[in-house]
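Let's practice the habit of predicting before peeking. Look at the sequence and jot down your guess about where helices and strands might fall. Then scroll down.
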Amino acid sequence: MTKTELEKVAVEVRKGIVTAVHSAKSGHPGGSLSAADIFTYLYFAEMNIDPADPKKADRDRFVLSKGHTAPGLYSVLAQRGYFPKEELENLRHVGSYLQGHPDMKHIPGVDMSSGSLGQGFSAAVGMALAGKMDGKDYRVYALAGDGEIQEGQIWEAAMFAGHRKLDNLVLIVDNNGLQIDGRIDDVCSPYPIDEKLEAFQFHVIRINGNDFDEIAAAFREARETKGQPAAIVARTIKGKGVSYMEDQAGWHGKAPNDEEYAIAMKELEKAGEEICRK
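Done guessing? Here is the structure:
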């Protein structure tokens, strides 16, 4: 897809996120919106996947380690054709398979159930090791939050991945600078993220995670990296695309009311129109 086409899809992914969280009256819009461009690139440009065959053996795997941002994953899965977009309005509703955190048993396209912070990346490392041991050429991608990497389990998994030279593994850190309690460097600073990952034998790539040119270049570089896992430290804006949510920790886990929803959708609609006029 072209950059413009990816930007259009990302707007639709953001609309889906806002719609789902508004309908549920709960959820996590901030970190879903910050990662929307990364979700879009992964599912529409980077990964070897087939919505018609979600469990095909040679597919690339994706693990949403920061599982609370499920609205972002669900929205891109719906846009990619794994299930009807209308299902997003059933997020967190009783009887819906779109639970508050990803469920691999019931949601098409979800490769790993997640939600307990830190554990998803460990699962991704296990998948990558299995691929190496089985002589398979699929790749494994994991998205972690910058607040999430305060968890020790992340670094245990990173140590193992670096030692095992898992060059079929890509860790993406959504570095939006905020977590539920405020700025990450005030709560429990994980900085310098890049130098720490390098110390664990990762090839580290630093980008603006809301710029498709930089995202595309980073994933190309990660694919070309041999003999060590890759990490993309993506600086993003929490709540990206909705003006009153941007860089506001309060929107980590809060749903917009009807008035706020209308404002958000109007802004996103305008953003989509501006892209079409390019």
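How did you do? The first helix runs from residue 3 to 24.
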